[in-house]
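Box 3.1 A note on notation
Throughout this textbook, protein chains are presented in two layers. The first layer is the amino acid sequence; the second is a token string describing backbone geometry. Keep the layers aligned when reading.
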Amino acid sequence: MVDFGKRTMNARQGQRHQHASGAPPQSTPALSDHLSRRDLKALEKGQLPAWTSMSQLKLLGLALFMVAMVVGAVTYYGPELARDLRYAGTFSVAGDLRATEGRCKRYVFLVSLCSAKIQSIGSEGTTSSTEFLMFFRSGDGAELIPVRSSVDASAVGIQYAVSDVLLNRTLSLLGITLFFGWVAWLFLDCIRKGRYKDGPVHEAVRQYVALHSSPV
């Protein structure tokens, strides 16, 4: 019994000695596990990760906005693009049509949103429109030549859209869908991992900052 008591006392003294020596706590590796390499680089520079200023609600709102952008682009430009791809090679100049009010508006020198109205020469009341988007093209100088598909007479457009930039239109819509979908996934992934203001990982950031800013 005496030996047992001595061993217990020595163990307690050893624990006090370890804490007094200033050895780093065992939770330090766990903090690094919660923080990404980019987080650690920012903290080493004395900066907080950007996501620490965004609340869970804000991240969710941004993710929903990105999803809305994807749905809007696909819904607005997708049907006409799918039709032009389906009838590609069947369009020919339509002498009974005229294209007017052609416009292209370029954003950040990257995306151009274009539109034009197509009217029937014989019937002034019959009017349709074409809408499309493209990357790295401005549309300046393109002729407004109305065309009609030989397979479906109701499928009309302008030659520039159904032939010259058809591939560009396809890749542009696909690129926008993938990009904004990826951004939405990043926001949702931050929520899933607790990487938001006052979230679980934000608490790990606070602990990391407190640990490395404490006096030696």
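The mean pLDDT is 83. Helices lie at 2-20, 28-34, 37-44, 56-86, 159-164, 166-193, 200-213.
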